């Protein structure tokens, strides 16, 4: 997954780890974490958490279906992910 600089459009980072196409991304309220979600019709989706200071992977989470939506809770360390198979999963994240 490529992360572009919004001003120059040059790549800031190229994040590796997703097995499928990335369908959803979201930043935490403090901007220190990027979440990305993938999946396809034949396997469960993955959500990966990235440290935006150095673009290292912080965690990998599993969903039951293809991840199509991600949202961070702005007041608590939680992340919600929705998928095509309808369940919404909510994880409490490490600080």
UniProtKB/TrEMBL annotation:
Species this chain originates from: Urbifossiella limnaea
Protein's recorded name: WD domain, G-beta repeat
Superkingdom to which the source organism belongs: Bacteria
Pfam families according to UniProt: WD40
Coiled coil: none
WD repeat residues: 60-95
Keywords: Repeat, WD repeat
